[in-house]
Specification:
By secondary structure, the chain is α+β, with helices and mostly antiparallel strands. Helices cover about 40% and strands about 30% of the residues. It starts with a strand and ends with a strand.
């Protein structure tokens, strides 16, 4: 499982979110280039419950709209 925290047309915006997330979680934070967008993801996680915990922490810190992905 992964948490997708954002998708941007701008690499600078993706980098800014990646840097913010790196301060909020010890989990790996990375940017994936997909169809001319920069996708910011966190993970991997062993189960969906772990992603739910992170999503709540992100929302409490102003990162809204993140969602879990099974990959």
């Amino acid at each position: 499982y992964y948490v997708q925290a954002g998708a941007f047309n701008s690499q600078a915006l993706a980098n800014a979110l990646r840097d913010k997330l790196a301060k909020l979680t010890p989990s790996p934070v990375f940017i994936e280039n997909y169809q001319h967008r920069y996708i910011v993801r966190v993970g991997p996680f062993a189960n969906k419950a772990m992603t739910e915990s992170l999503k709540m922490r992100l929302a409490a810190n102003g990162v809204k709209g993140s969602f879990s992905l099974l990959q």
